[in-house]
Amino acid sequence: MKDWQYRLRGARTTLSAIAVFIVIFALYAAKHDGGFTGNVAQTAANKGVLLAFVAIGQCFVVLTAGIDLSVGAVFILADCLASTLVTGSPLAVAFGVVAVLVAGLACGLVNGLIVVYGRLQPIVATIATGAIYFGLALWVRPEPGGDIDSNLADAVTGQLPGGIPSSLVLLLAIILLVWVPFRRSVMGRAVYAVGSSEASAYMSGLPIRRAKLLAYGFAGLFSAVGGLMLSFITYSGEASATNASTYTLNSIAAVVIGGVSLFGGAGSAIGAVFGALIFRTINDLLFVFDLDPLWQPLFLGLVLLAAVSFGSLRLLRIRNRLELFGQ
Amino acid sequence: MTQKLEPVPARLRLPAGLRRFDPAVATAFGCIVALLLVGSFYSRSFLSPEYLLQQFQVGAFLALVATGMMVVVLLGQIDLSVPWIVTVGGMMSTAAAGHGAAGAALAIPFGVLCGVGLGVVNGIGVAYLRVPSMIFTLGIDAVAQGLMVLRTGGSAPQDMATPLMGQLATGHAILGMPNAVWVWIAVGTATVILLGRTTFGRSVYAIGNRESAAYLSGVHTRRIVLLAFALSGGLSALAGTMLAGYSGKAYQGMGDGYLLPAIAAVVLGGTSILGGRGSYLGTTAGVILITLLQSILSVVQMPDAGRQVIYGAVILAMLLLYGRSSRVGG
Amino acid sequence: MTQGLVQGVPLFQMSGISKRYGGVRALDGVDLTVEAGRIHAVLGENGAGKSSLIKCMSGVVQPDSGTMALDGRPIRFPDPAAANAAGIVCIFQELSLVPDLSVADNVIIADPPRRFGLIDRRRQRQLAEEALARAGASDVHPMALVRDLPLSRRQLVEIAKALARRPRLLILDEATSALTARDVTTVLQVLKDLRASGMALVYISHRMGEIAELADDCSVFRNGRHVASFEAGTRSDAEIIEMMIGREYSHAYPPKPPPVPDDRAPVLEVRRLGWAPRLSDISFDLRPGEVLGLGGLDGQGQRELLLALFGVLRGTTGDVLVEGKPVTLSGPSEAKSTRQGIALIPEDRKTEGLMLPMSVGANLTFASLDRISKGGFIDRTAESAAIAAMVKLLAIKTASPDLPVGALSGGNQQKVVIAKWLMRQPRIVLLNDPTRGIDVGTKQEIYRLLRRLADEGAAVLLYSTDYAELIGCCDRVLVLYDGRVVRELRGAAITEEALVRGALNIDVATTQEEAAA
C-alpha cells in the first residue's frame, strides 16, 4: 500500500462521517425553500456548532476509553456564567469570556482528578459532578435571562463577508489551533495509547495519568466553549435541565456517529464534529422534506441504532468465541 | 499437606449473617439515619410514620426503576433507556385504558409488556450484536421517544389512567400502608428471590464477574443478558403505569427525573458499576437515601441550586468513601 | 570490534539472585554473566525460571536478594524505565505494542523527535524506518496500524521498537516463536549484525537449531537454579537436553494400571480436525479409563485443540465422534450436556475458571445448576449437599464454603475449578495445564484424582507444559508441533528425552530417513 492509502485508511471513519454529512447537507440545501443562501448556512452552522463543541469535548474523554456525563451540565453552566459575566466594558467582556472558559476547564479537571486519583468509574463520577455543575448553573441563574455583549455575540454568530458563517470559522480555527497540535503532541499520543491499551501504554513508559487529566480538562473546556456559543445565540442564559441532559446524550451519539470508538483509542475530534453536524442536519432534513416533524425523534433514534449496529459486522469474523468477551 | 491457607481478611471471618452486611450497605443505612436525624432537628415530623410512609410512597417509583437498573448493572451493563420506557409504560397503559372495559382491565399488563418489548430490543443489541449498552440503550431511548411523540402528536395525551392504576399508586388498601409501597415490597421480595435463589440470579452475578468464565461453564450468557434487559424494561414501564396513575394521566418527559437517581441509588447501595457485586438490600438503602435526600432538601426550602450541589456532593463523597474501584484497568 | 575479547569487566553481571512469588520460588541464587559483543543463550524447560530472570534484569520485578552490576558497578532497577535508561531493553513474549497507533508511533513511542514541541513526523518516520530496517522488517509500512498486522510482523515491530532505544544489552524472550521460517533467517542475521556492532544479547529460545547457529555462550536453568554455563559448541544437544531435564523426580505419581486395550470402544474419536491456521489434520481416539497427554512446546495448538473439543471455536473442519456418534459442538452448554458429558478445566483459572469474588460454593455448583434446581429455583438443600461432597472429595481447604474463592490459595482455587466439573460426572475430561503455578502437595492430589477418574471409567485428555507430569500421569502422549500431531508415545516410550525431541521436532527428519533407508 502507498502512503496515501494508509492515510486514507487511518482517516476512514472520519472521512465517511464527512461524506455522509455532505450528502445530507446537500439534500438539505437543495430542498430548502429559499435555496442555499448565506442565511441558511448561518442558521444551520449556529445550530450545529453548539453540539459540535460539546462533542469535541466528549471525544477527548472517549478516546481514553472513558465517558463524561457532565459535559451537558458544564455546557449549561458556561451559558449561565456567560449571561452574567460577558457584558459591560470591552475589558469586562474579555474577562468574562476568559472566566467562563477557565470555569469549564476547572470543571473538567475536577472530573479528571476524581477519575484518576479518586479511582471512581468515569460514568458514576461524572453523573455526580454533573449534578453539582448543574446546581452551580442554577445558583448563577435561577431564572432565565441575563445579558450578553451583543456586539460580540453578533460577531460570533453572524456572517463574515461573502456570507460565510463566522461560528463555522471559529470552529475551524479552534480545530486548527487545538486539535491539530494535540494530535501531534506526545500527550495526544498518550491519550490514544491509554484508550487503546492502558497496559501497553504503561509498559512503554507513557504519562498515563497526565493524559487522562488532560482529556477530562479538555472535555470541560470545550463544553464551556459550546455554552458560550449558546449564550451568544440566545443573548441570555438559562439553566435548563432538559438541555443539559440532551446535550450530554447527543454528544455521545455524535462521537459514535463520527466514528470515535467507545472502547477508546480510535477516532478523531474532526469525526466527532461531523457526527454532531450530521445529527443536527438530520433534524432539518425531515423538515425540508415536508415530513411531519413528529417523525423526527424516531428517525434520529433509528439512525443512531443503525449506525452503532453496523459495527457488529465484525462479529462475523470472530472464530474463537472467547474473543467475544475481550475488550 | 505442605501448603498453608492464605490469611483470610478479618471482614471475611465474620459469621455468615453479618458478613452479608457489607460495609457499603452499612454506610448507606448509616447515612439514612444521619439524614433523618438532621431532618428531625429541622422538624419533629421527620420521624413521624406519616412522613416516612409518604416518602416510601414517593420512593416506590424510583425503587422499581432502580431494581431493573440494578440487575443490568450487576451484569456490568447500563440501561440509559429508562426515561422514555417509563413514559412508554405510562402512555401505553393509559392508551389501552381508553379501549373500553377490556382495555381498562389490560391497561397495566399492556403498558408493562410494551416496556418488556423495548427491553428485549436492548438485550438483542447488547447481548447478540455486542454494541456497548451505553450507546444502544441511548438509541432505544430515542426510538421510544420517537414512537411516543408520533402517537401523541407531541402534546400531552388525553387518555386518563384507570382507577386501578390510581389505586395502585395512591391508595392505601391494606393495613393503611400505601399500595405503592406494597408493590415495592412485592417486587423487592421477588427480586431478592430471583437474585439469590434462582439459576438466573446466580448467572447474572457470574456474568458480571467474569463473562468468559460463565460462558465456559456452559451458561447461555446471551440469553441471561437479554432477560435482564427485558426485566429492566418491564420494571421501568411498571413504574410508568403507576406514575400515570399517580398523576391521573401520562405526560411527556414523565420519566426524565428517574435515570440518574436510579443509577445513583444502585451505586450508593454498594453495587459495583463494573458488575458482579451488589445486594438488593443495598439498592433499597440507596433508593431510600436518594428519596430522603431529595425530600429533605426540598423541605428545608433549599433553593434548587443548592439542592443539586448538595445532592451531587453527597453522592460523590459517599462514593469516594467506599465506591473506589480496586480493579483499576482490570 | 574486539570488545568481547577484552576479559576485563563483563558488561552485565548477576550474582546470587533469588526471587519468590508467594510460596513459589522462581529463582534460587542464580548467577549470570553477559559479555558485550556476544550472544548468550539461556536454556531451560517451561518454568525453569528464565522469565523471572529476565524480568529482574529489565526492572519489571525486583529480586528479593542478590546483586546486579553494569560495567562492574552495582546497579538496581526500580522500574523498566530505569533499565532502559541504563541501556538494557527487553523484548517480552507478551507484546507491548499499542494496537491503535501506527507502527512508526509505536517504534518511537518513548521519546519521539520534536520540533516546536510537536512530534516531528518526518523525522520520526525516518527513525522508525531505520529501526525497522535494522530489525529486518523493512517490508512493514511505518504507517500501518499495529492492529492490522499479523502476529509475526508485530514481533518484528517489537524488535524494531527495542532497537530504536539503542540498547547496550538486548534481551529477547522467545522472539522468534511466531515468526515464519524466512523471517527467522532474517532475524538471526540481524542479531549477528548487532553482535558484530558490540551489543550484548541474551537470547531465550526453545529452538535448538537457532541456538546452535547463534549462541556464543549458553546457560542452562532448571527449577529456578543455574545449572551450568559453557561456551557454545562444547556440549552436544543430547548433553544439553540432559542438563535441562536431569532433575530429581520430586513428584510422586500414582501407579499406572495396565494399558487400556486398543479394542475398547473409544468414547471420543477425533478425525482430521482442523482450525486454520492453528490446527490441522488432528486424529486420535480416546478410550474410557485412559489418561491421554498432550505434549509439545507451549503454543503449538494444544489450547486450541481443547477449546475446539469444547465447542468454543467457530469454523473447525473434520469430525468429532462421541461414543461413535458424530456430534456438532455448538458451545460449552452443548458440550457439557448429559448427551456429550464433556468438561473443560480451562487454562487460566482467574479469568476462565472462576468468578473470584463469588463464594466457593457458588463457584462449585455453577456448572451444575441445572442438576440442583427445579424450574429455575435452586434447591438449597441439594446445593449444600453437593458443595459439601465436593469440598470433602477434593479436600478443599476453606473455612467455609461462603468465603469468596479469591481468598483461597492457588492450589485450592484450582481444586475448586476441577471440582466444579467433577460435580457433573463427565465422561470426557479435558484439562489445560491444570497444575501450573500450584504447590507440590496439591499437584500430587490432582495426579491421584486424574488416575481415579480414569479408573472409574472417564476418559482424560491432559495438556501439560511439565514433561515430568506427562510421563508420570499419562498412558499415551500426543506431541503437537505447529498444530499437528508429530508423534504418539506409549507406555515406556514416554521419556523426557523423547518428549523434548518431539517438542523441538528435531529428529523427525532423521527417523523418517532411517525408515526410508
TrEMBL record, chain A:
A Pfam family annotated for this UniProt entry: BPD_transp_2
Entry's Gene Ontology molecular function annotations: transmembrane transporter activity
UniProt KW keywords: Cell membrane, Membrane, Transmembrane, Transmembrane helix
Localization in the cell: Cell membrane
UniProt membrane topology term: Multi-pass membrane protein
GO CC annotations on file: plasma membrane
Protein name: ABC transporter permease
Native species: Lichenifustis flavocetrariae
From TrEMBL, chain B:
Pfam families in the record: BPD_transp_2
Entry GO terms, CC: plasma membrane
Location in or out of the cell: Cell membrane
Top-level taxon of origin: Bacteria
Family matches, as CDD domains: TM_PBP1_transp_AraH_like (cd06579)
Bilayer-spanning residue ranges: 21-43, 55-75, 82-102, 108-128, 135-153, 173-195, 224-246, 258-275, 280-299, 305-323
Keywords carried by this UniProt record: Cell membrane, Membrane, Transmembrane, Transmembrane helix
Organism: Lichenifustis flavocetrariae
GO MF, one annotated term: transmembrane transporter activity
Keyword Membrane part of the UniProt annotation: yes
Name the record gives this protein: ABC transporter permease
Primary subcellular site in the record, as a coarse category: membrane
Topology class, membrane: Multi-pass membrane protein
